[in-house]
Amino acid sequence: MLKIENLNKSFGDNHVLKDVNLDINKGEIVMITGESGVGKTTLIRCLCGLEEYDAGKVLFLEDGEESQNKSIGLVSQSFDLFPHFNVMKNITYALIKVKKYKKEDAVKKAKELVDLLGLSGLEDYYQYQLSGGQKQRVAIARALAMEPQYLCFDEPTSALDYKLRDSVGEIIKTVASRGTGVIVITHDREFARKYANRVYELGA
Amino acid sequence: MDYIIEVMPFMLSGLKTTLWVFAVTAIFSIPLGVVVCLMRLSKIRIISFLTKIYILIMRGTPLMLQITFIFFGLPIMGIVLNREIAAAIAFILNYAAYFAEIFRGGINSIDEGQFEAAKVLKLSKATTYFGIILPQVIKIVFPSVANELITLVKDTALVYVLGLGDILRAAKTLSNKDASLVPLIIAGGAYLIIIGILTFVLRKIEDKFEYYR
Ligand SMILES: Nc1ncnc2c1ncn2[C@@H]1O[C@H](COP(=O)(O)OP(=O)(O)OP(=O)(O)O)[C@@H](O)[C@H]1O
Ligand SMILES: [Mg+2]
Questions:
Q1: pLDDT the model gives residue A199
Q2: Residue-range domain boundaries for chain B
Q3: What is the pLDDT of residues A115-135, one digit of tens each?
Q4: A94 contacts B121 by C-beta, under 8 angstroms
Q5: Counting atoms of ligand 1 from 1, which one is nearest the CA of A39?
Q6: ipTM of the modeled complex
Q7: Is some CB atom of chain A closer than 8 A to the CB atom of B109?
Q8: Which among A97, A107, B29, B190 could bridge B96 via Cys, Cβ 3.0 to 4.6 Å?
Q9: The domain over range A1-71+148-204 is classified in CATH as 3.40.50.300
Q10: Long-range pairs for B45-50 at CB < 8 Å and ≥24 separation?
């Protein structure tokens, strides 16, 4: 379980996160909603270690004990694919560099994710050759390759048409069903109703 | 024609000077520029401050003054250098400052999201820099670096202030002595050929980065 306890974060005088408490279980889809500027992005940036917080705790728990495994992934709004790597290398790079996979093993693992996310045939493409939806799926594959216990999505449906919304919804469901805790920021009530196990309204 | 053959050896020895000043400066100032750039971006205030001053001086005063200062000024402090070394040091220090600023601009133009994506994927600082950031920076700065190298070819003529005989000085000497424009035309042709070849080679390298946008 990912346990957020009394999290507080200010930017100067702007007290953005005030005593935020939220638990995310593995295998669960928690959707975070709230007005623009309320601090949703800031919250997941705190979880991913991209932002320092002022007070409170972010605990990675395993059977009630603090776990050594603090792995968490992020699919940001801008995807931030590495433009000088093709799709395959985007997915395998961290496996090879961080998890010390042999190249063949990393490619094998990436192939499974490519199939899962419907990216076959695009392995050699660079990001400038991909559509928005394809870039998003590469970003998801890149994050999943590291097998994080939790995965955050920042507004995954904002740039997608209706059909693609459902396809990313299904992907999120698949990810959760494999035991990953999923945290999704969304403004889309219908999307939340359809795919969330729980909705958390920030700033309410 | 006979005249051209007659002046050739003198012109060629000038060309040799032009080429070595260019090569030595290019080879040493680019890596030094990387170091200066990283110092300029250092979180340690004093390092970044001193580097800023160094860059300001190098870009804010004429290269000719810097060459003269290093050759005639340093002996006053007990550091005596021969002409060639003094010229090389001045050129390298000067060009490193320009390259450092070009590289800094390149690094600043990389989206913050690239650093953040690397961080969330747990890539080490070194892997992030050498695997993710640097390759993108090289592509971005390459045209500016190429431009600077072409300027350098022409700047090498400044070594005449130390009495070194580059191709332009050789041409001027001959032109005065023989009251002829031919040596100047030969020198102009030589510059054009060097810069033509350089432009071609740089273009080929630039094309190698075209595989992504
Ligand atoms: N780096 C920063 N420096 C200063 N203020 C910031 C910074 N990042 C965010 N903020 C402020 O924190 C507040 C919350 O921003 P955040 O991006 O988390 O909102 P959000 O809920 O994700 O909004 P949206 O739905 O529009 O994406 C805003 O008032 C924003 O101006
Ligand atoms: Mg946001």
A1: 96
A2: 2-211
A3: 999 999 999 999 999 999 999
A4: yes
A5: 18
A6: 0.94
A7: no
A8: B29
A9: yes
A10: none
